[in-house]
Amino acid sequence: MLLGSVEAGGTKFVCAVGNEDYRILDITNFPTTTPEETLKKTVDYFKQFKDLQAISVSSFGPIELRQNSPKFGYITDTPKVGWSNTDFVGRLKQDFDLPIHWTTDVNGSAYGEYIMATLFNEKINSLVYYTIGTGVGAGAIVNGNFIGDIGHPEMGHVRLKRHPDDLDFKGICPYHGDCLEGLVSGPTFKARLGKSGKDVPLTDHVWDIMAFYVAQAALQVTLMLRPAKIVFGGGVVSEAFLKKVRSQFTELMNDYVDVGDIDKYIVMPLVKNNGSATVGNFALALKEFNK
Amino acid sequence: MLLGSVEAGGTKFVCAVGNEDYRILDITNFPTTTPEETLKKTVDYFKQFKDLQAISVSSFGPIELRQNSPKFGYITDTPKVGWSNTDFVGRLKQDFDLPIHWTTDVNGSAYGEYIMATLFNEKINSLVYYTIGTGVGAGAIVNGNFIGDIGHPEMGHVRLKRHPDDLDFKGICPYHGDCLEGLVSGPTFKARLGKSGKDVPLTDHVWDIMAFYVAQAALQVTLMLRPAKIVFGGGVVSEAFLKKVRSQFTELMNDYVDVGDIDKYIVMPLVKNNGSATVGNFALALKEFNK
């Protein structure tokens, strides 16, 4: 059985074909240019696979997820130049008479991690996936369903208690200044220290400051959703960084609610190399096919 | 059809009997003393009603909500003296062979507001209810189900960006200091100003400071859950205060996600006099009966 995955990012698209065991049979990627050109490349890629049964798209946003909206399947009012009001699912439907699943990039990753956890025999019914990279976002699942009602979550834009050693930094979010994304996304290294994150050793105090903020995000989502597991992916995250996050989380929580073993609660992705969304897409395409 | 409601608060219990139209036919209340005495009074109250079909309890916490836990139906590790490890549902089951619904006080209120909104013909599938009184807590519903997986939410204990004019106030939460509850619960008036909240006019700047924090809570829950409506109840809340909250929310959000008409999004309860939980209990008792 052949299933299609589109991970539609603001910088590049990753298209893949896999099977119902979530194995990648073929994969490609290309830069995100205009909607016309990029979606044409997407369609042309999948046309090579005659027996494709369903496609799942995990897209950058904001997107319209409400099935009853006339704009369902669209990228809506995005800052990405040229992409506002793009009928993504409609374009795929022009060439493919197939079930198409449509969700956010982070929901796709969350679903991939949720499915993988099940395959690894973890007994969980819920999971939150944060990505901390160029931007910050999160997707959440409870009992196989995505969290969100009148729209998808935008968990990257919450406000946080500021770290006492970081009060002079205004944050870089063009909308909110010092929201989570404005304080911990990849480009904050340049803004704070004038160099790229990969050149900042883990001994630099900035990592403690960032861990304080990321721990608060984990605390917020714990107190609001009570998920079984929180996964952190994206270029900024490493096991060493998460160690700091766990420590600050424990201090902030002060034994108020029990999350079980903290080392199993706040974790790196099970799927390596940012591949969570591709696994998630295969599983979501299969789910859409079986509807 | 007779349905029973128990609103189990840390200070008093409100017991009521109503019908499937959510009308109160009889209501009483008594102070929360020892578990033995208070639960005996609860049982004795309901014994007067021979035709009772189901009971719903909305309780102070923390409580065990997981059906598969041996402690389901218990108040667990509560700071309320004498009440830790109390088998609430078990005590009721000793005297009543009836379906018993069990949830948190704020979930009960959230459900009451959700049901009332439906009766008022609002087209919503989700709702969050915050209470701001002696403590701060919240319950959330999506498609008729409560949010929470490994436990119930504890939304009162999130951290927030501190208001620049409030940096010296350490907050009063014994666990977290300056979490939401530590910054905006009723007793903060005494701690900040040395007098009770009812003696602090709305022109006092402390209300702006508190609105800044409550607006952040609304912002967090908006960005995490994307609910259709946020209701604020409890002794600290007034329409005039919510006006300040809406204004700060709008500023903090900066048009990032659309919540519709803000005056219909951040609102006071539809059920007056803190009666939301009683309505919620009638509806939940009916739901439990129909299971």
**Whole-number tally of structural domains of chain A:** 2
List the strand order in the largest sheet of chain A. Answer: 3-2-1-4-7
Name given to the CATH architecture of the largest domain in chain A: 2-Layer Sandwich
Assign the structural class of chain A, choosing from mainly alpha, mainly beta, alpha/beta, alpha+beta, or little secondary structure: alpha/beta
In CATH, what is the homologous superfamily of the largest domain in chain A?
A: ATPase, nucleotide binding domain
User: What's the helix count of chain A?
Assistant: 9
Q: Please tally the β strands of chain A and state the result.
A: 12
Low-confidence stretches of chain A: none
Cofactor (chains A, B): Mg(2+)
Enzyme class (chains A, B): transferase
Protein name (chains A, B): Fructokinase
Catalytic activity (chains A, B): D-fructose + ATP = D-fructose 6-phosphate + ADP + H(+)
Name some characteristics of this structure.
homodimer; 291 residues; alpha/beta; Nucleotidyltransferase, domain 5; 2 domains; five-stranded mixed sheet; globular
List the helices and strands and how they pair.
2 copies of one chain form a homodimer.
Chain A: E1 2-8, E2 12-18, E3 24-31, H1 35-47, E4 52-59, E5 74-75, E6 86-87, H2 88-95, E7 100-104, H3 105-119, E8 126-132, E9 136-142, E10 145-146, H4 180-184, H5 188-193, H6 206-225, E11 230-233, H7 239-253, H8 262-265, E12 266-267, H9 276-290
Parallel strand pairs in A: 1-4, 4-7, 8-11, 11-12
Antiparallel strand pairs in A: 1-2, 2-3, 5-6, 8-9, 9-10
